[in-house]
Amino acid sequence: MCLINVHYNLHPKYPFILVANRDEAYSRPTKAAHFWDDQPSILAGRDLLQMGTWLGIAKNGRFAAVTNFRDPKEGAKPKSRGEIVTNFLTGSEDIGAFIENLRANRSLYGGYNVLLWDGGEFVHYNNRLDEVNTIQPGTHSLSNCSLNTPWSKVEKAKSKLEEHASQNNDINVEDLFAIVADSEIAEDHLLPDTGVGLELERRLSAMFIKMPNYGTRNSTVVLVDNENKVTFVERTFRDGEFQFDTRFEFVIEGE
């Protein structure tokens, strides 16, 4: 997952509005969003290589999503970042305790950001910076550095989501997907320097990425309304072209 945008606790109908893109090698095997057979409480897509996920929500309302921290010099690590999302969705410990465990084991994973929401607290953690942020009401965006790092696509996504959420009482899923379908490349003076070289920085600066072997594999909208009804829509792409949508609706179960 390489771009996550959320409008949190400000909308009159939806306290949680999220739209995100997952960018990945086209060859990496993936299963579209579903309730998992081995973990029936989890609704998420699944990485069939490591059997974790990049973004998901549980029937009890726990939500988590992860992005990589971009560092081309980083070597392999013993644990998969996707298991962090799975562990939170299937667990019951509070967010503070969960993050303390992540901090104690931060060196076992490649660089990452994780967003954790339990219906009450909403927290961001970055293991490379050992940074914890309690997410306040407002519009936030996360890519491959840290929360609200002012990269061009982060700033653009925040602005577009804030505009849509503030001007519409009824949130349109198609309008949210349109935000993250933007494939415009940022101007060179707006590019970060993450060590991958100018040409790749250009290609990765778009919200929707389409490269020969890598790009946006799916987009996801998650809405939670005031009645605790969840709307989860995943849009799947193949080689940058639309394939299908997968839609789920359910009401969050009580504890």
From TrEMBL:
Pfam families: TANGO2. It comes from the Bacteria. PANTHER family: SER/THR-RICH PROTEIN T10 IN DGCR REGION, TRANSPORT AND GOLGI ORGANIZATION PROTEIN 2 HOMOLOG. This is NRDE family protein. It comes from Ureibacillus endophyticus.
